Amino acid sequence: MKNLEDKLKNPVWYSLNETHKKYLIEFDGVQFYRPNVNIFGAFFDEEKTAKALNEYSKIANKFFLVSENQVPIIDANHVILEKKINGCQMVFDHLIDIEITENIVLLSKEYIDEIYELIWLVMPGFYQKGGFEMGKYYGIFKDNKLVSITGQRMQTDDFIEVSGVVTHPEYTKKGYAKQLVTYTTKEILKERKLPILHTNKGNPAIALYKKLGYKLTRDMNWWLFSRK
User: Fold this and answer.
1) How many CB atoms lie within 10 A of CB 21?
2) pTM of this prediction exceeds 0.90
3) Could you say which DSSP state residue 52 is in?
4) Distance from CA of residue 18 to its chain's centroid?
5) pLDDT-derived band of residue 126, with 50, 70 and 90 as boundaries?
6) Mean pLDDT, the chain, as a whole number?
């Protein structure tokens, strides 16, 4: 049985082996989510990634491999590396008890389209509609519309990832993200799991996450590929 630290080093892999096992697609030891849910994959042996990416590219136009420090191998006849996103992992360290003044709502399936549209407005390419199945989503409504959300993404028996932290550009700088991340963090702690999150290096949001009790722990890189 792997310990928490091992799982944090390869979060996609262990999510697909535990909480999200029902979404698993595997090609020769390389694991992926079903593409309608998420387009992430994970591996341990980079020698196997070229063939696996070729197979996954038959069912997904764009997709990621996620790795702390390994470099995947590709078959350039079938797959194109679009970019490498230099990311980092943060884990919950201590609770900062931020006052929740907004009405935060647990979002039901009827809001899938609004969640999708808001995330794609702020971070296009980031989300599949089936991603709603991966965990709980919370939102703040203003003027009868969904303007800020936070979701849960990768999960194991030990941790839950805070993700999908987005606010409509017309409603930023009001503290919505701060309250949503705090609220989601507390909900994860109620399940006796460790809250974690991922972001790209240099993201100004890192300063906010630190103020909310998270600490930087390791690199976590995202290799974006597309079908040739």
Assistant:
1) 10
2) yes
3) H
4) 16
5) confident
6) 96
